[in-house]
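Lecture 7 notes: from sequence to structure.
We start with the chain below.
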Amino acid sequence: MIREHRNREKLINYYKIFINKDITDPNVHPWIKESWELSKQYQVNPKKIPATARLSAYELAQLQSKHSDAIEYLDNFIDSIVDFLHEYNLCLTIMDSECTVLKKYANPTSRLIDRLEGVSLTTKNVGTLSCNIVKEHKVPFWVFGPEIWLEELHEMNSGSVPIMVNGELTYIVSLTVMEYEKIPQDVVLALLFTLKTALELNIRQSLNIKAQKAILDAAPFAVYHIMSEDKIVYANRMGEERLSAINAINENKETAHLKDIVLNYTHTPIYDGFQGISCYNRETTWITNNKTYEDITTVVPLKNSEDDEDVQSVVTVSMPIEDLRTLVAHASGYTAKYSLSSMVGESKAFVQMKERAYRVARNKNHILLQGEAGIGKQRLAHGIHMASMRMAGPLISINCADSTPELLEQDIFGAATDSDVSHPGKLELASKGTLFIDEIEKLPSSIAKMLAKALSEKKTHRIGESLERSIDVRIIAASDANLRRLTEKGQFDEKLFNIISRSIIRVPSLRSRRDDIPMLSINIIEELSKQHQMEPKVLLPESLEVLRTYDWPGNIKQLQSVLEYSFFNTSGHEIYPTDINLMGSVKPDNKWKTDKEIFLKAWKAAGGNVSRLSNLLSVSRVTLYRYIKKYGLEK
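Predicted structure tokens for the same chain:
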């Protein structure tokens, strides 16, 4: 609030009446009245400047560091008007939003010079001042000398302006006029409003720049601003990291010329950009003395105006293809679903296996999981990935029994469909993460040799291409068979076995940890309930005993199938023994006599044991032998 010049003698009289008689003249400004009353309430002595608590030198330095951007801007601004301040004996101060003086700019001969920085100029500490009225009301305000609470300052005038950013009081800037007759009030006000506008604009721009920098530094791609002489004037965090990797940036963040470090510079989209040619999401190879990069690159030429033909600079956004594949892998759901803690059991064999999994997860070795089919090797692989240093990377799975050798080779290594189009394999997609290879014992020998070579050299090439690409992947392989014995018999590649078997985890069968079956069964039912958002169901003790005493030739996979069938086909909330069909979805009716597929499911559920299958189907062993022969199965 800007106020016109007031009669100084009247103002002195108003002040004395309030101090001596506690009476406020109607002509006293309401905000001054309010501040005087607070000053008296806080018992601030008007006769002398109080020994106000001042920040220590360390505390002041910390506070100034926090507000360094605003102080630095004001330093530069004051440099251009310092003679003006000295000539008219003005004292300028910048305070934080709590009225603590961050820095003052005054004539060196002023008695205030050593008394302001680090002092809190609140009403409670010093009584009425323009700055603490601005703090309260958040609008510009001018205080004439006799309105200041401290009588020692009555020969001065003071004006303050709030520095508002995004609707919040950020700073207060004050100008104290020590010789008010030498300079018109309008001139002081003009200077204050100029400072207010300039500082608010600068702070907003600074915040925007910091936000933009934070966004660019967090982005998973390199960003560069390159001038016409091939000089990089800006690089975000990833850009600086890549420049450092090829020794193209020094400790002062000065960069070399691109044409001196990129050997194929004239064949890159940056060179084309300076010819006025834009490119978007183009696959680009950057060849340097240290390393060759493969990126997806966008280059945008910048001109002074649309009519200008000369390109002044280019902005380049470049993302490593390797990182792009990682993002795609995550977006495609190539992430771990289970942690090691989700695997339940208390038996000695299981606890020892789980503890070893935690230890192995933290080293860098490839891992081999050994054990019967259906024991949960895939879930274990998920848990190991989540407990490893690679948990932020993708987890990609492949089953060697699911496709032909030709398709399996392309699935692992990728393939070029023609001269312009090629697709990465899962070995590339799993870079910086984990590739889980299930039933690795069924991997053809020729592919096993290629995989061993790729893992040894940490490089791979797609089928139909000669270009080698770096890989950084951990293999977790799973085998139902004894892979060492197969290797000794020459049925599995020895080199690949040596690579993946540096850390072996043997997973116990379900029947070898029979006491874990009740706990595991309850956990499976709970997971089904959460997964399908259905009311939980309870396995009765006698039902748990049925499950515990069964041999489970199909291990956890078979248990899961049996419990899923019971969960979805039991109408009540309790699962009785009669609700449990040990053949899972295979009903013990006569359809198996005419349907080979149903018979095979029952055969697998019984683990190929004729006596067990005879009990499950309630038929004689002689009858079963007839159907085993009919369907071409061996005993």
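Points to note: The CA atoms of residues 31 and 136 lie 9 Å apart. The two ends are 101 Å apart (CA to CA).
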